[in-house]
Specification:
The chain has a domain of 93 residues. It is 25% helix and 25% strand. It is elongated and about 60 Å long. The chain starts with a helix and ends with a strand.
Length: 353
Amino acid sequence: MEIMKNSPFNDAPKEDFISQLSDDILASILSRTPTKFAITTSVLSKRWKKTLELRGVKILPGSLESVLSACLSLRTLFIGKCEAPFKLCFGGPTSGDLKLENLIIENCCGIEEIEIYAKDLITLEFQDNRMVRFVFGHAPRLQSVYLSIESEDILAYVFGGFTKNLPSLESLSLDSKCSFYEESRRLMRIGGIEKLKNLKRLELNLVCTPNTDLLALHLFLQNCPLLQELHLVSKSPPINGLIFKACLARSGDGGAKGAGFLHCHPNLKKASFSGFEGTENEMNFSLYILRSAVGLEEMVINRCGKHYMGYGRWKNVSKKPWSEETHQMIQNQLLAHNNVGYGSLQVHIHNAS
């Protein structure tokens, strides 16, 4: 014991290796750890004291507000597969000076409305079968939003006023298994598309049939004047099921074809398209971006799709490679356009391996 006391290792600073882990890894470990050991280990890590995960529990009315008012140092809150009341409120007069920075809500039943008063909130993720009503009472620092909705026209919801009280929003990721036509086209007709003045990064993960007119997206893009990055992930609808039927019903060949409009996107620097099939509509939209984004520096065309893993992480989804004919057609059209006067533009085309 005397030797241990005199050991130089005792004078070394104690490092908190647990706190160096990312939020998603911390939450995953916590969800698999018995309560007794989680509490014991949290003593060793300052970060764990600021992360809370609620999974598969019943949230009684008012209970969440009580928890938040008692955990003012909470930075990351995950709520998944819980039975929740009609309305969830984060922050406000009853919760004191909430320091919440990251809020993730996944597949909870019963929620109709989410109200947020969190001055330090930076990221918000929400996944569900249908959209709920969001009320942003005070979220001045919210910079990144990810929304995944199974069965509704998510573009119409977001560009219809969702971002009205989010002055700092810079990154928006939208994931839907439904087409974006019916309600979106109504917004286009009445001119009701909200302008996202500060948005710099837009990621759209959308169901696309061969008849989906992607050029209709130009009206949304022109309402993002500072957009620097556009990422479009195309996914085919499931062969069976109601979602597929809804997509077919809402998709069509109507809308602009690109010949009569060309809105300039001067700040767009990077565009990527994943899950690319090489359909006429995909090619038309890609060529539209090449023509309209005069400052474009890089375009990436990828046959593989992408799937969101949570906490800002994506993984590639393998697909059957293009035929040699399709691959050659994509190269000929895009690279031929690239040679017409965009010397600094890099076009990368990746077939599935």
